[in-house]
Amino acid sequence: MKSYNKSKSRGIILTFMAATLWGTSFPVIKWGLTYISAYNFVMLRFLISILVLVPIAIIIDRKDFFTHFKEKYIILLGLLNSLSYFLQFVGQQWTTATKTALLTNSSVIFAAILSYFWLKERLNYFKASGIIMAFLGVFLIVTGGRLEILQSGTVIGDLFCLVSGVSWGFYIVISKKISNQESNSLSFISAMLMYTFLFTLIFSFPLLVPVDFSFEVYFAILYTSIFCTILPFLLWYEGLKTIQASSSATYLLLTIIVAAIISITLLSESFTLTLVFGAILICVGIWIVETK
């Protein structure tokens, strides 16, 4: 029992770390899009990621890497991951960063429902209320409790980001199904990201334009590649091995809290009671989801 609790605690910590790193991506992406097109940005992000991870994975365990590379589930994960990120980057051109965070994190709801029907994970009224409570907390944080904020941006951008969230819901559950198997996380993720890049290249290729490589462009690409892709994916997959898919998805809501903290400290946004209340709802929701 102690060993199980220790393993679960480790999974929670790793998932929290991944969520924190992913939380920094929203403001960086929005900032970076002022210097580089969405299509170039998302393609270069994953190009750098695979240039770092794939050679290391091949050197460490060539056989394991190519075994994963041939798996049909890895191909599907790469497609869903690519589609999700592509839709997010494109949608974020036409809507706000906060609305992007809200709509893409709707994956929590879809992942919980899919986990119940496909993975047979428990989703009783108690756990469902925790997921809803956490999502309500996200809603309060990104809107400030004012519905009129949802009228900003464009319908096209909003729809892109919402479909991105649906795609990630499927991605989360399939990831859980695969992570139950014995696998080398580095080889597993490297193979998946290789397909993510290939599909992203296919989606972006007709829309690519010449890039003016300034300091801002280099920073945005390298930061999102290393700190918002390579590191969090490794942490998240390790954590996903010992916690349920729906629970892990709920932890990803913490990305909104991180984005809010960055906005307050670096962008001088106001610190409101609504923000505090939203953060409390998220924390309580996470506790409910994890309570057996």
Report on this structure.
This protein has one domain. It contains 13 helices and no strands. By secondary structure, the protein is mainly α. Helices cover 79% and strands 0% of the residues.
Summarize the entry for a quick read.
The chain is mainly alpha-helical and 292 residues long. The chain is built from 13 helices and no strands. The protein has helices at 2-23, 25-32, 38-69, 72-92, 97-104, 107-118, 125-143, 155-179, 185-204, 215-240, 245-251, 254-266, 273-290.
What descriptors fit this protein?
292 residues; mainly alpha
Head-to-tail CA distance between termini: 14 Å
Helix content bin: over 70%
How much strand?
Answer: under 5%
Number of domains: 1
- Please count the helical segments: 13
**Average pLDDT level:** 82
The largest β sheet comes out as: none
How many individual β-strands?
A: 0
SS-based structural class? mainly alpha
